[in-house]
Amino acid sequence: MLVPLAGAVALAVLLGVAAYVIMSRDQGCGDSKAALRVVASPDIAPAITKIAAAYGKSSTEANGACVAVSVKEGDPASVTNSIAGSGATAGKFDADMWIPDSSLWVAKLRSTPKGSGISAPAVPSIARSPVILAAPKPVIEKLSSEFGEPSWSGLMSAANAATPDGLGRRIRVLPLDPTQNAAGLSALLAGAGILKASGAGDEQLVGVLRQLSETAVSSPENMFATMGKQSTRAPIGIASEQSIWAFNKSDDGQLAGLYPAEGTISLDYPVLITAKDQATRDAAKSFATALTGNAARKTIRDNGFRTPDGKPGGAISQANGLNPKAPRSLKVPDAETVNQLAQAWSRLKLGGRILALLDISGTMALPAVGAPGDRMRLISQTAIEGLKLFPDKTEIGTWIFSTNLNGKGVDYKEAVPIGPIGASLNGTTRREVISRSLANIKAKATGDTGLNDTLAAAYDKMKAEYEADKINTILIFTDGVGNDDPEGGITNAEILRKLRDEFDETQPISVIIVALGAKDAAGRRQMQNLAKATQGEAFFPNNALEIRKVFLEGISRRLCAPNCNSSQ
After folding, report:
1. DSSP structure string for 50-119
2. Which InterPro entries is this protein grouped with (predicted)?
3. How far is Cα 47 from Cα 296, in angstroms, rounded to an integer?
4. pTM metric for this prediction
5. Which of 320, 322, 181, 324 is nearest to 250 (CA)?
6. Residue 443 to residue 403: CA distance in whole angstroms
7. Residue environment code for 265-276, b if the CB has 16+ CB neighbours within 10 A, otherwise e
């Protein structure tokens, strides 16, 4: 009888000791608890929170202390700016671990003075989400007939401002702002790489960037909401695979993911340890290890992500509008290429302030080459087409010039005052007013070419009204004769001296000249010198097709202004 009793007592004692150890392990962390603060990209934060809760219950220790993990959301762009000490931010970053949605943010941060000391990720990737195309299911058939196989090249074509009568008339592209969203930047990198591989020039990329910059939205939520608006054009957007899953989960699966044929770039969710003291860094390393475990990977897959090897869970399915097969991976360009593209986007987002000077001298009535009608008609028609490339916020005004247009000795006259071309002017938009003015413009049969006096006055005006947040440009349309003013006025040497003396790189006003059919060597040389004096450019097109290209090349100068090299 005593033997079983003794055994029972011993068992009870053992159970009591075990309970005490377990409870002490859970409750005794109060005196030796390591607090770990984690900031994660909003899309993956719910998964990280679940993993952290399971990790806390396991009472995992680091240096003898239990680790208590708290997780909060942090927009990657805001966090990057906060650590770098520049740009818009939602507040100070004070966490011990950061999980952005893409290594692109890490590269950007480490390229800044304050972020250069940031350590390499402790874990290169804990999840993946391919950046793909998205569209409402009801328009898939229409997109297929217009687009063919989903591709970056097709998307770039639909978004090219240089082909307003192409796919863009039937397809509405909705990109994500690459300065705020890694999926948007990844898509630009993929698309730009495909364009470059096809042999496309900078002007085509600029045409795409210019158009996309006008329709970009700040977040996937805003993009998906915009897709629901009625339009005669079929909408197609850019999003991560996980964001489509998340939207469909809450909105009856109305979106479909379209996988570009060329492959894509994925969001990769690196883990950075930002803690300073060693004890917290050790706790962060412990949690980082837990993020790569089997249980964590399952949680990540259950939340619409793939694991780093591209394997999906049940969330990535045809039923959810997605393809479980992993798309081909495109190589992420080097840091310099990424920075150049980001800077190009930012520069093209700058507003423009343009004063266009149109030559109406007698020689503009001569026949045009490569188009019906005279030179004046060709210039005006092409300028009307060129207006389509500029967004509504661009400020444009026009002058006409010849000789004695506004009284004796005044060779220029304002046709349309400078202002936003989308704004109202005399009951209609300035864009329409300029188009009508161009359509009705006539060459002055007996007029000479008072180019120098006109350019001097235009430069004075633009300098007096300089706007620092815009690209300030004087755009001259002429026939290549140069200055031809029998009554005198400013000489060629004087106008060159004025431009060279007054050009200011801190407030640049560049002169771009479009000289149609310029054959005279001296005239071409003078116009090249005028442009070069302001780090501008002189173009000498011979036909309508070449003139259209000039508009895009002029816009592309935003990528280098004010340090562009003039071409011949």
Report:
1. HHHHHHHHTT-EETTEEEEEEEEE--HHHHHHHHHT-S--SS----SEEE-S-HHHHHHHHTSTTTTTPP
2. VWF_A, vWFA_dom_sf
3. 8
4. 0.74
5. 320
6. 12
7. bbbbbbbbbbbe
Helix (H) or strand (E) holding 337: helix 335-349
227: its two tokens: 């897709």
| Cα 135 to Cα 146: distance, rounded to the nearest angstrom | 14
Name the nearest CA neighbour of 467 among 422, 414, 507. 507
Note the pLDDT tens digit of each residue in 148-181: 899 999 898 888 766 666 677 788 899 999 999 9
Say which amino acid occupies 546. E
* Strand residue runs (E) in 137-271: 171-174, 234-240, 255-258, 266-267
What is the rounded distance in angstroms from the CA atom of residue 357 to the CA atom of residue 515?
12
The structure tokens listed for 67 are 């680790």
Tokens 């200055």 -> residue: 483
Number of H helices, E strands in the chain: 19, 18
Q: Cis omega (within 30 of 0) on the bond before 541?
A: no
C-alpha closest to that of 327 among 562, 177, 151: 151
Tens-place pLDDT, residues 267-318: 999 999 999 999 899 999 999 999 999 999 999 999 999 999 999 999 999 9
Q: How far apart are CA 38 and CA 50, in angstroms?
A: 13
Task: Kindly provide the b/e burial profile for residues 179-207, where b requires at least 16 CB atoms within 10 angstroms of the residue's own CB.
Answer: bbbbbbbbbbbbbbbbbeeeebeebbbbb
Lowest mean pLDDT among 106-110, 163-167, 487-491: 163-167
Q: How far apart are CA 371 and CA 272, in angstroms?
A: 61
In terms of Cβ atoms closer than 10 Å to its own Cβ (0-12, 13-18, 19+), residue 416 is buried
For the chain, how many residues are written? 568
> What is the identity of the amino acid at 482?
G
| Angstrom distance (rounded) from CA 388 to CA 386 | 5
Is the backbone of residue 64 left (phi > 0), alpha (psi -120 to 50) or beta?
Answer: left
Asked whether 303 and 46 are in contact (CB, 8 A), the reply is yes
Q: Could you give all domains of the chain from N- to C-terminal order, each with its CATH number? A: 31-127+269-303 (3.40.190.10), 129-267+317-344 (3.40.190.10), 350-560 (3.40.50.410)
What share of the chain has pLDDT > 90, as a percent?
A: 51
Q: Which CA distances in Å does 105 have to 21, 62, 112, 118, 336?
A: 44, 29, 11, 12, 14
Cα 427 to chain centroid distance, Å, stands at 34
